[in-house]
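Action item from last week, closing it out:
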Amino acid sequence: MSAQLDQLTAQAANDPDTLETREWLDALEAVIENEGPERAHYLMERLVDLARRRGATIPFSSNTAYVNTIPAHLEEHCPGNLEFEERLRSWMRWNAMAMVVKANRADGDLGGHISSFASLANMLGIGFNHFWKAPSEGHGGDLLYIQGHSSPGIYARAYLEGRISEEQLLNFRREVDGKGLSSYPHPKLMPNFWQFPTVSMGLGPLMAIYQARFLKYLHARGIADTENRKVWVFCGDGEMDEPESMGAIGMASRERLDNLVMVVNCNLQRLDGPVRGNGKIIQELEADFRGAGWNVVKVIWGPGWDTLLAKDKDGILQRVMMETVDGEYQNYKAKDGAYVRKHFFGKHPELLKMVANMTDDDIWRLTRGGHDPHKIYAAFKNAQDNKGSPTVLLVKTVKGFGMGKSGEARNTAHQTKKLDDEAIREMRDRFAIPIPDDKLKDIPFFKPADDSPEMQYLHERRKALGGYLPQRREKAEEVLPVPELSAFQNVLDATAEGREISTTQAFVRIISTLLRDQNLGQRIVPILVDESRTFGMEGLFRQIGIFNQQGQLYEPVDKDQVMYYREDKAGQILQEGINEAGGMSSWIAAATSYSTNNRVMIPFYTFYSMFGMQRIGDLAWAAGDMRARGFLMGGTAGRTTLNGEGLQHEDGHSHIMAATIPNCMPYDPTFAHEVAVIVQDGLRRMVAEQQDVFYYITLMNENYTHPGLKPGSEEGILKGMYLLQEGDANAKQRVQLIGSGTILRESIFAAELLLKDWGIAADIWSAPSLTLVARDGQDCERWNLVNPTATARVPYVTSLMDKTSGPIVATTDYMRLFAEQIRAFMPKGRTYRVLGTDGFGRSDSRVKLREFFEVNRYYITVAALKSLAEEGTIAASVVADAVAKYGIDPNKPNPVTQ
């Protein structure tokens, strides 16, 4: 009988019938040997099902024993030259360490991390040498989300490959002068190197899941052959605490993303201490992922443990392995072999006998699975070959492996960036780096001759896999023509008499036009998060279908309606459910497809502006880092346009957030023609010219008439401000009213009141982008600062206002800070007053909300009169008369405090 059966039999300490148990186990063993594990699994499932139906209580557990998932006799051994690979890996460890330590000896505040790569080096080496394909003819390349804190190791590899110079290594984290290397993976800063940003932590796992699904989407729609491509995402076990890390693992299983491999580096430590000191993070993650339907592969123990486990006839070693908590495991690797003998094997007399013939050094050399190339190769091969489900590899490593007493397995490891001379000497000796003692104080980088066998091997392995990684494509090879503005004539013209529409409806018309375009139609990616009907976009369901790899296995309940819910294997819509982060991750995948897939895609992600930008701000910043190109459409925008919904639905700050992202082009258009001009120009910049910008455009669900495009105003719309309507030329007094979004119309109505009630003319300025106006002013201000003797540049908004007279009042549906951006660029001596919706939102009608926030036509009128009074052109009593006339309560509390 096999050792495994003896072990299982012995584990049943209270077995009343050991003979019967052995017979059942013998039978199961025979099935496995003769019919395979699939048949054995089927029979076991049938037995469990029968027992439950007969009333037996069988507790569910998604955990397996605390041992390697792949037994030693089933491992596929690494086919590479392991001697060469070990030396290459050691040189990379050394250079990564030298890069960080040298940087911090020169400038102690630069920071950097050594320990993450130290624990990951074996895994990255196996991947780069044997699995990860670069983009080449016939293969689009694998996509790598590298654990952010391991970047020094990636640079160290690229240095040996000749892709990064020694000067760049010496300028690690010194980028301002253009010679250095970014702290973490940043495509914005290293545009032909890094594919994806993976810090902030948690965003890598989330984005990778939707990236894998987007590859399936492209393949199903016939846009790109992605069948043999994989998405590999590396993350730390502490990183899995981030809600984003785990938030989409159910979607990955549901969508059968067998092109996705998540590798969790389980070194048991976070920055401050153990991840689960009192528990077992690997077991916890196994339960989560296995329960979610993933293929889970645990790589816990190195090969030395295989012999001990084979001797474990009574299962004592496995039991102790399971009972030992992570805090203890961390302690073992921070000490020595004698400590491990006493505190681990000493937990049971039989275990002490098991290692009686082993020296303390032998015990110390019992490695964790993540540091053995064969174990790693076997796990990677399993992930590569797995079909029908995503794979997670839970790989146990030692934080700071090789750093010795200065950091190995210690709570300080993550922050350790300054090693003393003795620690450097120990690392040199441990990894056999050929640097003499007299050179050690300089911590020189090591790079062997190009014709050395190890270097030749390094290049041969990457040549066999198509080229070097990571690498990033900056522009797509294809050039797609963009429709002229006239293609959107149905929203450029004024609305018919008596006809009212919202800018959301105008957008639906625009996207419908684009879907019919022969050049761009198939490249449009509508992304929705269970609000299609809110935005009037349900008509797209039947027109282009919702992407689902299974198609539609049911007849929709609304099949008898024109706009029924239709799922399709080649559907064009990505419907993400109630999931803004997922929608944004899908958008990022599509918005960077020009780089990752050499296919230009044009995503339109439409969401509640409050729920979207508020919840995905970190992802939006990552999109800027990734040089994303696409449209974010913030529906029901502004604090007073979404009447009746309440505080957490009303957006008064999304444009403040959007303004913080330098390559985001934010617009708050009021009219349909403005939306069309902005979208068409966005297509020109992002598709035709392949500029690395993306657009945030807010839309309203409020219906009103639209004046149509006045020829010549296109430039002003795109710059962010233009004259919409001139006031009465004969009036003695004059003011300038600026507005955007839905509140611009309140400024128009205020102009009517000013003229009718007070004889004052008002020019109306539409400001589709106060942020772009502010950026232009800041650019001029900066240029004038550093060019003091040159002719001063005049900000765009200053040049507009210089041609006018009277005080200026700006009103928006956002916080005052939004319009305050342009105060510095108002002409000197002119009053500039800002009204906005600071404070918490609340539920009511639009009319009442605008009264509450003091941004309606009456408050705008009073603000204009007050400004005139302050300039001395009308009496203060006129302002008081207006306050009384319009029923404004002087004692009304400030809405900010309510």
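Closing note: The chain is about 40% helix and 10% strand.
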